[in-house]
Amino acid sequence: MSYAIKFHQTGGPEVLQREEIVVGDPGAGQVRIRQEAVGLNFIDVYYRKGLYPTSLPSGLGTEGSGVVEAVGDDVYFLKPGDRVAYAGGPLGAYASERIMPADKLIKLPDDIGFDMAASMMLQGLTAEYLLRRTYPVKAGDNVLIHAAAGGVGQIALQWAKALGAFVVATAGGPEKVALVKSLGADVVIDYKADDFVAATREATKGAGVQVVYDGVGKDTFMGSLDCLAPRGYMVSYGNASGAVPAIEPLLLSQKGSLFLTRPTLGSYTSTRAEMAEAAEALFEIVLAGKVRVGASNRYPLADVALAHRDLEARKTTGSIILVP
Ligand code: NDP
């Protein structure tokens, strides 16, 4: 019997329940996938807690990999047996089997296994649009990446180095700092122990950085603005520590004509062409060995509540996959 993890009310990890489901046949433009691996991302926590609204009861999860079992009408580029992966689309990746809109699926190259795909699609595509399209990083740029031991952070850090940037990174605690150093960051700051603004200024000889990639949110946002060089880009792409409060636009002028954006993967992969191009760039850099990916944390899908607890407690590094 197929099963999915659902929640009937928002709240802590305990609201996540395993339920048997009947998946049925795909409709026009859809495919049914048998899932081999599911990606766990911080956004799943926001939906579970209610920070991002969804109608209840709801499935959860937006990333997975698996094998196409059946295709509906009007699906011409996929067939049963194809190996596929996705990031985005309707909630419901926490399942052994599911229906997906065909146009959200990317065919996997032979060299990319299911676990690797589920560990990198969402976080890797995020790193792709942040570094190549939100603020296109150039050789010689000073870049600050927060939470660089995390899922998006590890990929973004390695990608920024491959683009030739000088990378200042933050991480919480000595073990994460050592890990981030081993991934090639030029300077790593333990932002639990040290003032990351002063340390970033020092690391860049007072110049500041051209861009901050900040997925931490509330706790780092204001400090991040103070790390930027004049006309720098504040890329606030997440809220792991809580949502960023409102600010006055005048603040951006006072701090040096800064740019501020709050981007989402969805608006950078809104067409099939954009998604395919982004995935191609991700596969290319991973297969070239310039960005190492893989799940550092693997949990049975049935233990999803524990996986959520560990992610929220900042116990994990890198990506997390759930295995149905
Ligand atoms: P991570 O693996 O990076 O986990 C979050 C990390 O944030 C933690 O490990 C921790 O690292 C750090 N952190 C700092 N403060 C807190 C806190 N109070 N509670 C929990 N964690 C904290 O997760 P992901 O890679 O899945 O996501 C990273 C960020 O990127 C998230 O904010 C996510 O929402 C965002 N995101 C945004 C996307 C977009 O398109 N806008 C797409 C994908 C992800 P440390 O211990 O080192 O501080």
What does this molecule look like?
- The chain has about 325 residues and is an alpha/beta fold.
- The chain folds into 2 domains: about 5-120 and about 270-324, Quinone Oxidoreductase, Chain A, domain 1 (Alpha-Beta Complex), CATH 3.90.180.10; about 140-260, Rossmann fold (3-Layer(aba) Sandwich).
- The protein is about 30% helix and about 25% strand.
- The chain is built from 10 helices and 16 strands.
- Strands 3, 5, 6, 7, 8, 15 and 16 form a 7-stranded mixed β-sheet that branches. Strands 11-10-9-12-13-14 form a 6-stranded parallel β-sheet, sandwiched between helices. Strands 2-1-4 form a 3-stranded antiparallel β-sheet, with no helix packed on it.
- α2 crosses α3 (about 150-160) and α2 (about 115-135) packs across α9 (about 270-285).
- NADPH dihydro-nicotinamide-adenine-dinucleotide phosphate binds near residues 150 and 241.
Helices, strands, pairings?
Elements: E1 2-7, E2 17-21, E3 30-40, H1 42-49, E4 58-59, E5 63-71, E6 83-87, E7 97-101, E8 106-107, H2 114-134, E9 142-145, H3 151-162, E10 166-171, H4 174-182, E11 187-190, H5 196-203, E12 209-214, H6 221-225, E13 228-236, H7 249-254, E14 259-261, H8 265-268, H9 272-287, E15 295-300, H10 304-312, E16 319-323
Parallel strand pairs: 9-10, 9-12, 10-11, 12-13, 13-14, 15-16
Antiparallel strand pairs: 1-2, 1-4, 3-5, 3-7, 3-16, 5-6, 6-8
Helix pairs in contact: 2-3, 2-9
The chain binds NADPH dihydro-nicotinamide-adenine-dinucleotide phosphate.
